Amino acid sequence: MKKFDVIIIGGGPGGYVAGIRASQLKLNVAIIEDKHLGGICLNWGCIPTKALLKNAEVLHTIKNAKKFGIEIEDFSINWKKVIKRSRDISRRLSKGIEFLLKKNKISHINGRGILKSKTEIEVLLSDGKKEIFTAKNIIIATGARSKYFSGMEPNGKRIITSKEAMVLDEQPKSLIVIGAGAIGIEFAHFYNSYGTEVTIIEALPQILPTEDIEVADELSKIFKKRGMKILTETFVENVTDKGKSVEVKLKSGEVIIADYTLVAVGVQSNIENIGLEKLGIKTDKGSISVNNLLQTNIQNIYAIGDVAGPPMLAHKASAEGIIAIEHLAGENPAPMEYTNISGCIYSHPEVASVGLTENQAVDLGYKIKVGKFPFRALGKSMAIGETEGFIKVIYDEKFGEMLGCHIIGAEATNLISEAAIARKLETTWHEVLQTIHPHPTLSEGIMEATADAFNEAIHI
Ligand code: NAI
After folding, report:
1. Full residue range of the structural domain in which residue 190 is found
2. Are 311 and 399 part of one and the same domain?
3. What spacing in Å lies between the alpha carbon of 179 and ligand 1's midpoint?
4. Which of 186, 231, 267, 413 to mutate to test the pocket of ligand 1 (most atoms within 8 A of CB)?
5. Is 459 one of the catalytic residues?
6. Looking at ligand 1, which residue's alpha carbon is closest to its atom 15?
7. Of 279, 338, 292, whose CA–CA distance to 138 is shortest?
8. 253 and 284 together in one domain
9. Using CA atoms, how far apart are residues 319 and 26, in angstroms rounded to an integer?
10. Tell me, what's the pLDDT at 1?
11. Which atom of ligand 1 is nearest to the CA of 413?
């Protein structure tokens, strides 16, 4: 029986980051992971999709090369190589995590773990044997998987999830995307940029329902201009694989036909078959319940990342992993803060946000000042040929604190970190304005949007 200070079940961005932090704090640590080190994020999520989206960006640049005075007579797409590049990057990164575990002297247990008691985990090893491991502390970091509703069960053939959408053998001529969250939007953009005819079906009144409505509307306009069909407030009755095509029947009775249908209606935590019931570990709405130090109702058992509920984002998982380890190691970490986690969508243009939307701020009773600045008014945006979108900032009128920032446009996912730091430091609009932003940059847009909230913008 092997003993550890802490065992982590799951080697994704929650689990492996927690493992490394544990090692830094001189804890004897093991990670149980059988499928892929790096988890879904690195193998079937964030990273391989971003690789594919980079291909889409290159293609966009080539198609628009004329604008830059570059004539490209002829080019072609090698679909297999597009897919291979993405898979190769995932493989390389997963190897990188293996190296990091070795470097940090983290034991990698290749198998699947089930909790047997507060300190024991039975592991079904990948060679078929079973072994019990014990630990003073346990962290559950088993992640999440795609969910679907009855009538739209993915079959991996014509009705697919994001996983198959990443490795299709052929480029579909047409694709129906059910669900306009981050996954639906990123794949809709990717396939549209390759010339696939894309139809997006969203049950709610706006695409990207958790984003500020102005941002969602702007993206919707841009996507429609690029030829995508967007059906909001639309409900799917059922999806039928017809062999060589797929048929989506809407509640209205209308039938839409395409080569493939991507089901992207959300994800659900992996809480099954890990022994939660036996130990009486509490769950709520399908995820493990935790306090803001990531402890479950059993003090020495923690849960982090997607299995511990939304927002289901890699950076949230990693942050939780570090807090959990520091807490169990007897350090005194600041509790997890859920109000300042940036959301990023890697479409073209990109979308990123942090903090409250305008509607949320109003609903919470704030008196607000809202500023908006379009990228087309920035010199840098024009120079790089990326003028779509805007930056919107929301300030509390009383104390001047930044309540939210919403960006649609080039580099939105990098720019948002300025707003996240501003919010973390409870920065006021005066301080943002007094921070001299370098010229020419896209970040000037945050300064200008802030100025706009108080009628002081220079370039509009
Ligand atoms: P999601 O929950 O963000 O979006 C699902 C969408 O499907 C929602 O807009 C919902 O209203 C819609 N929907 C639900 N049922 C429907 C139905 N029957 N018909 C039509 N529409 C329906 O889930 P998504 O996009 O699958 O992403 C899963 C998780 O992964 C999210 O937490 C997301 O934040 C995260 N993620 C983050 C990425 C990023 O940060 N770039 C990229 C991909 C995923």
Report:
1. 159-265
2. no
3. 6
4. 267
5. no
6. 265
7. 279
8. no
9. 19
10. 62
11. 41
Residues 278 and 252 in one domain: no
180 shares its domain with 255: yes
Q: How far is the CA of 183 from the centre of ligand 1 (A)?
A: 6
Q: What spacing in Å lies between the alpha carbon of 160 and ligand 1's midpoint? A: 15
Rg, C-alpha atoms of the chain: 23
Residue 179, ligand 1, Cβ within 6 A: yes
Total of domains in the chain: 3
Instruction: With respect to residue 458, please indicate whether it lies within any of the assigned structural domains.
Output: no
Output the residue whose Cα is nearest ligand 1's atom 26. Answer: 266
Q: Which two tokens stand for residue 46?
A: 């964030």
Residue 115, in any domain of the structure: yes
State which residues of the chain have pLDDT below 70.
1
Point out the ligand 1 atom lying closest to the alpha carbon of residue 183.
Answer: 25
In angstroms, the CA 272 to CA 430 distance is 50
**Tens digits of per-residue pLDDT, 91-117?**
999 999 999 999 999 999 999 999 999
- The closest of 285, 423, 290 to 353, measured between CA atoms, is 423
- Quick one: pLDDT at residue 36? 84
Position 411 in a domain: yes
Shared domain for 294 and 399, answered yes or no, is no
Shared domain for 215 and 236, answered yes or no, is yes
Residues 412, 233, 45, 193, CA torsion sign: negative
